[in-house]
Specification:
Elements (H helix, E strand, L loop, with lengths): L50 E4 L4 E7 H11 L6 E4 L4 E7 L12 E2 L5 E4 L11 E4 L8 H9 L28
Antiparallel strand pairs: 1-6, 2-4, 2-5, 3-4, 3-7
Helix pairs in contact: 1-2
């Protein structure tokens, strides 16, 4: 059996720290203020500034009070699209797919008119009193029917309506005797 030497044996412990390269993230070739997350839509601003984007350019916007928006978020669960909030302004804005809302008639919830400017925060702003993301884009979309149901407290479809509880029927004992 041939004798093994250290030179012929490859062990990870033999590497120096200089052998490893860990790149900076975001890449150092671009400044961190100009780096864009490739998974976010183009209308989400890069950097650290809030941008104004007109409603109906990329999505429909439904605006409600802050309290109503928080209740709706609790009802909608995880299948929800982008949501922007501002505690200072006391409002929550739900962004829905473009052309998904033909009309909107919910008390206290307003479909923003075309070209109404909506403040869009950078993706890193997820809390605070001013405009921030409650739900970042890319997680899914909010169905208008589900949002309507969450805001009004009504079931969104026939399948989701609670079925009335059926009373348990008591069986009456049969008379003893031969079966026919």
């Amino acid at each position: 059996m041939p004798k093994r030497t250290k030179a012929s044996t490859h062990r990870p412990a033999d590497f120096d720290d200089e052998d490893w390269y860990i790149p900076d993230w975001p890449p150092s070739s671009t400044s961190s203020s100009s780096y864009r997350d490739p998974f976010l839509p183009g209308w989400v601003p890069g950097g650290s500034c809030v941008h104004s984007v007109p409603a109906d350019a990329h999505w429909h916007a439904i605006r409600v009070t802050y309290d109503a928006g928080q209740r709706a978020l609790g009802t909608l669960g995880t299948s929800i699209g982008p949501v922007i909030a501002s505690k200072l302004a006391g409002q929550v804005t739900f962004l829905l797919d473009l052309y998904s809302v033909a009309s909107w008639n919910v008390a206290g919830a307003h479909l923003l008119r075309p070209r109404t400017m909506v403040e869009i925060p950078p993706p890193t702003t997820t809390q605070g009193p001013d405009v921030h993301w409650l739900v970042l884009p890319g997680r899914g979309t909010t169905a208008p029917q589900a949002l309507h149901a969450a805001l009004t407290g009504a079931p969104s479809s026939a399948e989701e309506r609670p079925q009335p509880a059926r009373a348990r029927q008591r069986r009456t004992p049969r008379a003893a005797g031969p079966r026919s």
